[in-house]
Backbone:
């Protein structure tokens, strides 16, 4: 079992962390670009279109979709954190023996959990943006932005991942 210096651990984690920063940035930027498209399309549509037969059920359908998207968004805000911890824990358990001597392997587990969490948020953000298109509810737009922000605050840094990997390796040694 070799002892990792902080510099060597951070050097080993630099490349996978940079890759995950790019992935997380895409999970942030793509929904924001789509939100811009949705807002531009919505602004170009007629504000009070002429009534169409059967319009009331269609409007109700848009409201229902909007409400369902909000519920899914709230659920995803909570479940993404649980799933991140679950996936990370499973990966740590699979790597436990190797990870005590190679904490950089734990960094990979952390980053895998982060991607799962970001993907859940991204899916719910897109759902809320699509719901916004039909319902024009600012709540759906707000939920989408909240989900994107939830991913943004988790942006990995080499220092954060290395500190987590060291702490987890220490706790594994203690068990």
Residues:
């Amino acid at each position: 079992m070799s002892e990792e210096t902080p510099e060597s651990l951070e050097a080993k984690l630099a490349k996978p962390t940079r890759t995950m920063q790019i992935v997380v940035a895409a999970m942030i930027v793509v929904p924001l670009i789509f939100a811009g498209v949705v807002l531009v399309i919505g602004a170009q549509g007629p504000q009070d279109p002429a009534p169409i037969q059967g319009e009331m059920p269609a409007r109700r359908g848009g409201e229902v979709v909007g409400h369902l998207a909000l519920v899914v968004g709230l659920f995803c805000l909570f479940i993404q954190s649980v799933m991140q911890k679950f996936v990370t824990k499973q990966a740590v358990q699979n790597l436990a023996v190797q990870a005590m001597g190679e904490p950089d392997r734990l960094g990979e587990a952390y980053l895998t959990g982060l991607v799962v969490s970001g993907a859940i948020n991204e899916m719910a953000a897109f759902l809320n943006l699509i719901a916004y298109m039909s319902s024009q509810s600012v709540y759906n737009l707000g939920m989408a932005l909240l989900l994107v922000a939830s991913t943004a605050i988790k942006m990995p840094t080499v220092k954060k991942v290395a500190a987590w990997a060291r702490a987890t390796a220490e706790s594994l040694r203690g068990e």
Q: What stands out?
A: Residues 24-36+60-174 form one domain.
